[in-house]
Write a structure and sequence with these properties.
- The chain has about 210 residues and is mainly alpha-helical.
- The chain folds into three domains: about 90 residues, no CATH class; about 40 residues, no CATH class; about 50 residues.
- The protein is about 60% helix and about 0% strand.
- The protein is built from nine helices and two strands; from the N terminus they run αααααααββαα.
- It has a two-stranded antiparallel sheet with strand order 1-2.
- α1 packs antiparallel against α2, α3 packs antiparallel against α4 and α7 packs across α8.
- The radius of gyration is 24 Å and the shape is flat.
């Protein structure tokens, strides 16, 4: 995943929000989420360290993003830390050199969620170990040593389950592009005809698929 592309996405979205005076959304996406992206990059590069040029690029873009609401702070970063010869007020927004690949962004977000799930599971296991000390079953849990290097095995499916493919096909059939919506009534009818309606996983999956 290219970190530069992720930064471009936040930058473009923030520009659009500022133009529409959606300051609350601009603050969220252009400041808080932008910092979260930096924190994530720092976290996943702890073994090799962050790239200097990318860090400086992040600082430059962050300074530009906060200029409308914190001009004095942005000016200090721009001329004092980045040593730019002219004021931040004269700076132009960065221009992306390549189009945004949404697939890369979504893949990165998926991996971020997967890593969090793995770490949360480890934390839960450690808490269970702490509670089980001196109790029955503690002997088995002592086989896990949290101080030693750990590894995780991830299995990736090459295809989706058949019931999911059927659900996707049904939604595609009744997606009305002009209105940008799905005909839920027809979807339900076809789910009933195919007996997928009895599968408790079908409707939640379809709802999530529509949102995505």
């Amino acid at each position: 995943m290219s970190p530069f592309k992720l930064l471009y996405l936040f930058h473009l979205g923030n520009c659009f929000l500022f133009l529409r005076t959606n300051y609350k959304e601009a603050l969220k996406f252009g400041f808080y989420d932008f910092q979260s992206t930096r924190d994530w990059y720092r976290e996943v590069t702890t073994d090799v360290g962050m790239h200097r040029d990318l860090v400086l690029y992040w600082i430059r873009v962050a300074s530009l993003l906060v200029t409308p609401i914190a001009p004095h702070f942005a000016e200090h970063i721009w001329t004092g830390i980045l040593q730019e010869p002219s004021s931040v007020q004269l700076a132009l927004w960065p221009t992306p050199v390549t189009p945004i690949d949404a697939t890369i962004i979504e893949s990165g977000a998926y991996m971020r969620g997967t890593v969090k799930t793995i770490r949360d599971a480890e934390i839960s296991f450690l808490r269970a170990m702490a509670k089980a000390r001196g109790k029955k079953g503690a002997q088995e849990q002592r086989s896990f040593d949290p101080t030693k290097p750990k590894a995780v095995r991830i299995y990736v499916a090459t295809g989706f389950p058949e019931w999911q493919d059927q659900c996707v096909d049904i939604v595609k059939q009744f997606y009305m592009k002009d209105e940008d919506r799905v005909d839920d009534r027809r979807v339900k009818e076809l789910l009933t005809e195919s007996r997928l309606i009895k599968d408790k996983r079908a409707m939640p999956f379809i709802q999530l698929f529509k949102v995505n």
